[in-house]
Specification:
The complex is a heterodimer. Chain A is mostly helical. Chain A has helices at about 1-5, 20-40, 45-60, 65-75, 85-115, 120-135, 140-160, 165-195, 200-210, 220-240, 250-255, 260-285, 290-310, 315-340, 345-375, 390-395, 395-410, 415-430, 435-460, 480-495, 505-515, and strands spanning about 75-80, 85. Chain A has a two-stranded antiparallel sheet. In chain A, strand 1 (about 75-80) and strand 2 (about 85) form a beta hairpin. Helices cover about 75% and strands about 5% of the residues of chain B. The chains are: A mainly alpha, B mainly alpha.
């Protein structure tokens, strides 16, 4: 009897073909640990880097098939409906995989330069990437939370992984404390939403809160609980994507963490964070937009202004880039704000703008931090703006790439950075959020100063006073790192000249999120 | 005719030719100075020649856009490569084509020639693009992208506080144009309902006139701010003296000749054309700021001790005239403004080249350190005299025609502003002639006595500009008749869309200033008065001419 019952237990039907990327990333991490423990030689050579890059490429290679299937059959739900595989998930997975490949190559030269070779860097990154994919695909707040935790915990450790740098330990610790706090807040938010709606399934929450369905409305006595839950979720995501006023950890953590780890943090972690934010806000709470939009508006304006104005006074390049990443998050928040528009066309424009921004910025920031990694020299602490002086004479190609990446971050035309900003501004104007558009452009103009300062240091070494101070020591540019920087630079320029490359995919991804 | 225009895409060619030059420059090793210069010179000269060919092929009876090219670029956002030329942009393009080879020929960089020439030719491609873009967003792309090469030119090859100047230049312009992007996007979205699709096509947006009065004013102001920084209008002009003074000579020439025109051209092509109502209602602001610029620029120029800074401030005054002419909103005024944009490019470009040569020879630009150069370098002094008098606006030289038309138009449409502006003409004579007197007259002492005269290669570089100064002064008709139809079309557009507005003044413009003898006389008298006892300059001018 008991046995018979047990055989009848319904296990969720798993459609394996749709979760291969997730499987490859997580199994890849486990395999890497196993292989490197069995064959100790592989611990210190380039094997882990290439293995990880192969995992990234392998995971990404399934995406075209998945995309074709999504186009033919529409989005599907897998693992007891906990994950949605739609164009949006595929897009975010693609960006995360690209980042994994680039950062893996970057790790290789970094860990051998610092004498920290080992598989743990790669294993943690693969796990974190798997968490990011999970977060992007989650259709259940609990799974969202799981993804968020897998994503974050691996990165806490990565931040502290430079064993000889005290700053790195401090960064890891700081990141962990604040991250854990934000996770707690996030979880409390989930609890409150569950309490008021009776479900954690994001799409069900969306149906319950549908304005056109009066029977589905949450009873009035639960509404305040629901709103409090929404606010707590916003705070939790605010920490992850470093939106003001929850950004304070960012400069410290970026400054202290190993530079290639920051490349991953600023790209993949942010991408996954925004993916989760969009899913929860737009699908789950889309019809509450009138309630969360004012909150988001305040956060956005604060993020844009703080990010750009505080960046100006920094002299440490990593800190500068930390504030600049806050300002960029502000731009993405503008797009997110527009994605909450009740007019579906405008909302899709907003969603598209966020997705393009995420992609463009990820590539840009990986390239920039790859350069910073190289410039950090042995010990990873030559990050003062003066350490970049005269780079154009010593390493003209590296300097040119850095200049392109910086100008792209400033939003100069004919780079992907311009079209990223332009799409956001266009979306905002289309949904009549003129104030946001104006504030965003002002912030962009202010942040231009910080990129220019770095360019001055790189190209105009002798300064106004014409005094020839001794130039900093020459840097050693490993070919693999140069490859990463080169890929980032070329991508930036290609998307600046052909901004519509893959545009259909992009729009499909945004509309799959908004229409379903 | 359509087939003929399609036969050779001249407009894209004008952008692509400099870009190909950039590629060629990249392939030449960095230490081959003369080959680099030759390549840059050949590439820019070919571009210049093509622009002159276009001048010849231009149909002067057609007021609309010619040689038009339109390719979709970013479909879902209505962005396209939409290029075209009319009488307003024609001469600005030709001027760009002429000034670049001259600027390259006239001066040498003191280091890193390869990068220097790459930035200059890139700048040429961008400047060409700005003047022919008929897609608002494409215009913005070019408008912004030209900042980068100029920033590197000032910061890398400039003098003194060059990094400060380069940063200030970049940030002022970038901050000014930040809101313009919002404006551009807003006007496209607000016109979407009446046009039926999202487009940045200037002609279609201008014909739609879909914005409410308030929206039109706000968007117009967002454009106006960007252009006001670029022109520059008082009180946003403070970047200009720094950038001009610290820039290398070629940079100053292009900055004054080409880049300042982006602002004034922007007002005409985008400000007034897209937003006739707002431009008409708010014209008084720009008239006032223009006139303040004229008087303030002239007054400050008078006080300068640095010759290059003096020329820089004279630009503020000259550009004030152009703004005055544009915002009178009648044919004479606008026609004069367009003419004056070109004239200022030629005269001020030539002045910067000459001042650059003085600096190369004497390693100073302090007026008090110079003196008596006329004795040691007579041909140089003659060339300087001609250019300076053109800048003053002496009848018979190019500067006069434009200034006269502006004053003529202004007197009909904005009388009291014009009355004040006329004092600027007198002040111009004062500061330029006084500077000339201090630099070139007297007995040369020390190094001034041994200053070498104009070399043959330098003479060849400056000669085309001297020729244009005299030619356009004596016979401006070929230029005016090409500008006029497009300007009249613009004025008619404003009249059609602004209720109860009739462009002030008679419809027909006297192509030759002969019909207004009285005003000519007053101007001449004023100049003669200002010149006082200084007539030696005239002798040299005659000698040169």
């Amino acid at each position: 009897m008991m046995l018979a019952q047990e055989t009848e237990v319904v296990t969720p039907n798993i459609e394996w073909s749709l979760i291969w990327p997730l499987i490859i990333l997580s199994i890849g991490a486990v395999l890497l640990v196993t292989i490197t423990s069995l064959a100790p030689k592989t611990r210190t050579n380039a094997f882990p880097a290439w293995f990880t890059a192969a995992c990234g490429i392998g995971a990404a290679s399934f995406l075209p098939f998945m995309y074709r299937r999504v186009l033919d059959e529409g989005p599907s739900k897998v693992i007891a409906d906990a994950l949605v595989i739609d164009a949006f998930t595929i897009f975010i997975t693609g960006v995360i995989c690209a980042v994994v490949v680039l950062v893996a190559l970057l790790f290789d030269s970094y860990v051998s330069r610092e004498g920290l070779a080992g598989p743990e860097w790669y294993v943690l990154m693969l796990l974190s990437a798997a968490g990011g994919v999970l977060l992007a695909a989650a259709d259940d707040l609990i799974v969202t939370f799981l993804g968020l935790e897998i994503l974050s915990i691996a990165v806490y450790v990565l931040a502290a992984l430079h064993l000889r740098r005290e700053a790195s330990q401090e960064a890891g610790f700081k990141y962990f404390i604040l991250g854990a706090l934000s996770s707690a807040i996030f979880l409390y938010g989930i609890a409150l939403i569950y309490g008021s709606t009776g479900t954690t399934r994001i799409s069900d929450i969306g149906r319950l809160l549908d304005r056109s369905n009066p029977a589905g409305l949450v009873p009035a006595q639960d509404a305040s609980m629901l709103l409090l839950g929404v606010a707590l979720l916003l705070i939790g995501f605010g920490f992850k994507v470093s939106a003001a006023p929850f950004h304070v950890w960012t400069p410290d953590v970026y400054e202290g963490s190993p530079s290639p780890v920051v490349a991953f943090m600023a790209s993949a972690v942010k991408v996954a964070g925004f993916a989760g934010l969009l899913r929860v806000l737009v699908i789950g709470l889309g019809d509450l937009a009138n309630d969360w939009r004012p909150l988001l508006l305040a956060m956005t304006i604060l993020t844009l202004l703080l990010g750009s104005f505080l960046a100006v006074v920094q002299t440490n390049v990593k800190r500068m880039m930390a504030y600049s990443s806050i300002a960029h998050a502000g731009f993405m928040l503008v797009g997110t704000y527009v994605a909450g528009d009740f007019d579906i066309e405008e909302a899709i424009n907003g969603g598209t703008s966020v997705l393009f921004y995420l992609f463009a910025y990820s590539i840009l920031v990986v390239g920039t931090f790859a350069t910073i990694t190289v410039m950090g020299r042995r010990g990873d602490d030559a990050h003062d703006i003066d350490d970049y002086r005269g780079l154009s004479r010593q390493q003209p190609v590296l300097a040119a790439c850095l200049a392109v990446l910086l100008f792209a971050q400033a939003g100069v035309p004919f780079t992907s950075g311009f079209f990223a900003k332009f799409r956001v501004i266009a979306a905002a104007a289309g949904s009549e959020a003129y104030l946001l558009a104006a504030v965003a452009m002002l912030s962009a103009a202010v942040s231009a100063f910080l990129y220019l300062r770095l360019v001055v240091s790189v190209y105009m070494a002798d300064g106004d006073d014409e005094e020839e101070a001794p130039l900093p020591a020459d840097v050693d540019v490993p070919p693999v790192a140069m490859l990463v920087i080169g890929i980032a630079t070329v991508t930036t320029l290609v998307f600046g000249i052909l901004p519509d490359l893959g545009g259909n995919f992009l729009r499909e991804a945004a509309s799959s999120l908004l229409i379903g | 005719m359509i087939i003929a225009a399609a036969a050779f895409p001249i407009l894209p060619a004008l952008i692509i030719a400099p870009l190909l030059t950039v590629l060629a420059l990249m392939l030449i090793p960095a230490n081959r100075d003369s080959e680099l210069k030759l390549a840059a010179l050949v590439g820019t000269t070919i571009t210049g020649a093509m622009s002159v060919w276009m001048l010849n092929a231009f149909d002067k009876t057609d007021a609309g856009f010619q040689f038009a090219v339109n390719r979709v670029w970013l479909e879902d956002l209505g962005l396209s490569w939409n290029l075209g030329v009319d009488g307003i942009s024609l001469f600005l393009i030709v001027m760009t084509g002429v000034l670049f080879p001259i600027a390259i020929l006239a001066t040498e960089p003191h280091h890193d020639p390869k990068q220097y020439y790459i930035w200059l030719t890139l700048l040429m491609a961008g400047s060409m693009g700005v003047f022919m873009a008929l897609d608002l967003l494409l215009f913005f792309l070019f408008f912004e992208v030209v900042l980068v090469p100029m920033y590197f030119l000032i910061g890398g090859w400039g003098h003194g506080r060059r990094i400060y100047a380069a940063l200030k230049f970049f940030l002022y312009t970038m901050a000014g144009s930040a809101l313009m992007l919002v404006g551009i996007v807003s006007v496209a979205f607000l016109s979407m309902d009446s046009i039926g699709e999202l487009t940045f096509d200037v002609v279609r947006l201008a014909d739609a006139q879909a914005l409410s009065t308030t929206a039109q004013r706000l968007v117009f102001l967002s454009f106006a701010l960007a252009f006001a920084v670029k022109v520059p209008l008082f009180p946003l002009h403070t970047w200009l003296p720094d950038a001009h003074t610290e820039a290398p000579t070629a940079g100053s020439v292009i900055l004054a000749g080409v880049m300042l025109k982006l602002g004034t051209y922007g007002y005409l092509r985008f400000g007034i054309y897209l937003f006739p109502n707002a431009a008409h209602d708010l014209a008084w602001i720009f008239l006032t700021l223009g006139v303040i610029g004229i008087v303030y620029g002239a007054a400050v120029a008078t006080m300068q001790r640095d010759l290059k800074r003096l020329v820089a401030y004279s630009s503020v005054a000259h550009l004030g005239f152009i703004v005055l002419g544009m915002f009178v909103l009648n044919t004479q005024g606008i026609q004069g403004a367009v003419l004056q944009m070109v004239n200022h490019g030629i005269s001020t470009g030539a002045l910067f080249i000459l001042v650059g040569w003085i600096y190369e020879r004497r390693h100073t630009r302090e007026i008090s350190e110079l003196g008596g150069l006329q004795k040691s370098a007579p041909i140089f002094a003659a060339a300087f005299t001609l250019v300076m008098l053109s800048s003053v606006g002496l009848p018979g030289l190019n500067g006069f025609v434009g200034e006269f038309l502006i004053l003529l138009g202004g007197f009909q449409g904005a009388r009291w502003w014009t009355v004040i502006a006329v004092t600027g003409v007198i002040l111009a004579a004062l500061y330029l002639l006084w500077a000339y007197q201090r630099v070139f007259h007297g007995t040369p002492t020390g190094d001034n006595a041994t200053m070498p005269d104009l070399r043959l290669s330098e003479g060849l570089a400056i000669l085309p500009l001297l020729f244009l100064i005299v030619f356009l002064g004596v016979y401006p008709k070929p230029m005016l008749e090409r500008i006029e139809p497009s300007v009249e079309r613009l004025v008619a557009h404003v009249e059609a869309h602004v209720d109860g507005f009739e462009s002030p003044g008679p419809e027909q413009v006297p192509a030759e200033p002969a019909t207004a003898d009285d005003l000519t006389e007053t101007l001449e008298e004023a100049e003669a008065e200002a010149k006082g006892d200084d007539h030696e300059g005239d002798d040299h001018e005659e000698g040169e001419g």
